[in-house]
Hints:
Helices cover about 70% and strands about 0% of the residues. It contains 7 helices and no strands. Helix 2 packs across helix 3. It has a domain at about 5-70: lambda repressor-like DNA-binding domains (434 Repressor (Amino-terminal Domain)), CATH 1.10.260.
Amino acid sequence: MPLNNHALGKSIRYYRKKRGYSQSSLSELVDKSPTYLSYIESGLRCISLDTLVDLANALNVTADILLRESLKNQAAVMRAEFAEILADCTDYEQRILLEVLIAVKASVRTNKVLFYQCYSRR
């Protein structure tokens, strides 16, 4: 599976914003220009492995999380993301999140079946 530069850029942008960094402040952390970082986030530039590692370190995420859309084993990456989300939750918060996830999963599966039934008649 080839590297998906647009998905990589979108992921970098997501974690940059989540960490509260501007393009300018992140570019300083990785010693790249803000313009170059903008090109990366837009998917217009390929990045070197060194730059990927620098960005992952600056954003405090693993490289596989940034690359998840280009990986064949996305399930393992998503499990790691779920674990990261739950890491700072109390037992109560984890239980609520579990109940919400169970309800959403059931709804997605129900509506997926209804969606296919509705559109397969056309």
